[in-house]
Amino acid sequence: MEFWSHLNPRRYRKSGYIAIGALIGVLAGSAVSLFRYMIGFILEQVVTVYSFLREQPQWIPAWILFSLVMGVILGQIVKSDPDIKGSGIPQVELQLQGKMDMNWWSVCWKKFVGGAISIGSGLLLGREGPSIQLGASVGQGVAETFKANRVQKNVFISSGAGAGLAAAFNAPIAGLMFVLEEVHHTFSPLVAVTTLTAAIVANFISLNVFGTHPSLNLGNDQRFPMEYYGYVVLLGIVLAIFGLAYHRLTLALPKIYKTLFPKVAPYNYCLIAFMLIIPLGMWNPHVLGGGGELVLALVKENHTVQFLVGLFLIRFVYSMISYGTGLPGGIFLPILSLGALLGLAYAEFL
Q1: Which CATH class is domain 1-350?
Q2: What would the pLDDT profile of 241-252 be if each residue is shown by its tens digit?
Q3: What is the pTM of this model?
């Protein structure tokens, strides 16, 4: 257990960091893969329930009561450890900056349970942020187990974060680049080697669980004609405008919730979202969740511009409602699905 205590940032054994990176990759990859599986399993059951309720509406009150109970449980989980709120990425960044210290075990299991229920329930939340925080908490646990110093602890937390993202989307290079660009904002060979090792190992585990196909396998293997690239530039401008609006609304969500529901405690905002998501599930249960499967289904079908724009607006609003609760859940996958809907509407318009 004292093996790492003699290491320092000036003189270290790279092979040792690679070995620990591989260990973090195994643990984070296993945790995140199970997390992905639980989200998919729960969401599948929820879709089945809504399909049943559409045929047997007399059971809707029972589902409302069940949703309220689950909302209360989730609210208490978040209240017991506020560090698991939201995507978890800001918490990881603050931790690496030395501005926050978290109980890794509390964050790990509460983020797992809270995130699986929140995302699996059909709220428009993504798995990427929670997967990153899950991986980071695993890295922190390994660092504390091996009695690592502060520099080593940061390396292992970063490696866990990259491994979590790699396992969440079968994308090890994305996990590495996220850590270097988003977390550290600089290139460190030690961080890069350890994180890449953890990400590759975590991705290997994920591939063996979910298969080798990409998370968003659009199957676009055709060449895009050069004469149409002007339309791509215009689409980028449109997406940027909506992205800016989404960004500003996201930052304003706590104030909006507090203004609309002044007597509701923040950890009980989830009750509001759980009630508002029921009409959407009754309308079409297949539009629930982060949106990855929805995008894959839409590209295989033909829809009118009006339908796609309407679905975009619905998911835009419900994404705000979901993320504003502070429940464990990310925002990346919902944003991807919104961008895909705009791209589809744009294509149909052209």
Answers
A1: mainly alpha
A2: 999 999 999 889
A3: 0.90
